[in-house]
Design goal:
single chain, about 300 residues, mainly alpha, Alpha-lytic protease prodomain-like, Alpha-Beta Plaits, 2 domains, three-stranded mixed sheet, 3 strands, about 10% strand
Length: about 300
């Protein structure tokens, strides 16, 4: 895991833990549905950061007989679990809490306590979100939008933390709006509406995360830039006559598998073909260090009758 990803996860973990504890106290004192939904959301987010760190740790295990390509997909798997937790513990609970208060409305008490807790939570979440944005900017090309980064990033931690923090910050403002509207209109259904809005938001974010992590788990090709570098390195070898095809797949954020079929010069002896393959692999790894596993299959040109 890159240092930037670790820094964003640690910042989010401690921010969410502090926010969650304060929201629990606030929800008990005030009876606010929005605060209760946000408390569960923050506890889910805290657990999610732990899951991301667990995935990073487990992915560092080396290759073995049962996993010849290593364990880097652990990072994708645990990020997918994060999406499930965000959907169930965050989104569905918030919707349940909102529906429950719509059916049995009651006004929020001690609104001053709720306001203080929400404002503190917004400040802490802003710090976590700022950290995530700052770390994303270190690796995101300036011409790429944040949405494109989320869709194309091969490392799961930063997009996950970024989306979670954005959802959390938006959810806090929704809870604040529901609380204030419910208090000043004397209609507690506004607080319930805030909880429902938070639930819908979290379900949407969980769906986006789930789709992206599923795609990575299934195996995504590397970026067009990396593929171009690999092809250029292979074609630059003097004994390579033609590259028939090249397939790439990310086994993890920093591990790429490359399978390619190549036509070498027909006059080349078998021993030279073997040596040429080794040289080509070395050149490809130099061009793209993440190309850990490279399989080059020699072929020959076929006459078309």
């Amino acid at each position: 895991m890159h240092e930037g990803s670790r820094k964003a996860i640690v910042a989010a973990f401690f921010a969410n833990l502090g926010i969650a504890l304060s929201k629990v106290v606030g929800a008990v004192i005030t009876g606010s549905a929005g605060l209760a939904a946000e408390a569960v959301h923050s506890f889910a987010d805290t657990g999610n950061q732990g899951l991301l760190m667990l995935g990073a740790k487990r992915s560092m295990r080396g290759r073995d007989d049962e996993h010849p390509f290593g364990h880097e997909r652990e990072r994708y798997f645990w990020a997918f679990v994060v999406a499930l937790v965000l959907f169930s513990m965050g989104g569905l609970f918030a919707i349940y809490e909102g529906v429950s208060k719509l059916r049995h409305p009651h006004e929020t008490s001690n609104i001053a306590v709720a306001l203080v807790i929400l404002i503190v939570a917004i400040l802490l979440e802003s710090y976590s979100l700022r950290t995530a944005v700052k770390e994303v900017q270190h690796i995101k090309p300036s011409t790429m939008s944040y949405w494109q980064f989320i869709r194309t990033a091969k490392q799961p931690e930063l997009p996950t933390v970024l989306l979670e923090d954005l959802a959390a910050e938006t959810g806090l403002f929704l809870a604040l709006a529901g609380l204030l509207l419910g208090h000043y209109t004397h209609n507690p259904r506004w607080d319930a509406a805030g909880s429902l809005s938070i639930g819908v938001l979290l379900v949407a974010v969980a769906f986006i995360l789930g789709v992206e992590m599923k795609s990575l788990l299934m195996g995504e090709t590397t970026s067009p830039e990396n593929k171009r570098k690999l092809l250029d390195a292979l074609r630059s070898h003097p004994h390579v006559q033609k590259v028939i095809y090249m397939h790439t797949e990310h086994l993890g954020p920093d591990t790429i598998l490359v399978a390619t079929k190549v036509i070498f010069l027909p006059s080349l002896p078998a021993s030279d073909v073997s040596r040429s393959i080794d040289e080509a692999e070395e050149a490809m790894r130099k061009a793209v260090p993440e190309a850990t596993f490279i399989f080059i299959e020699p072929d020959m040109a076929r006459l078309v009758v």
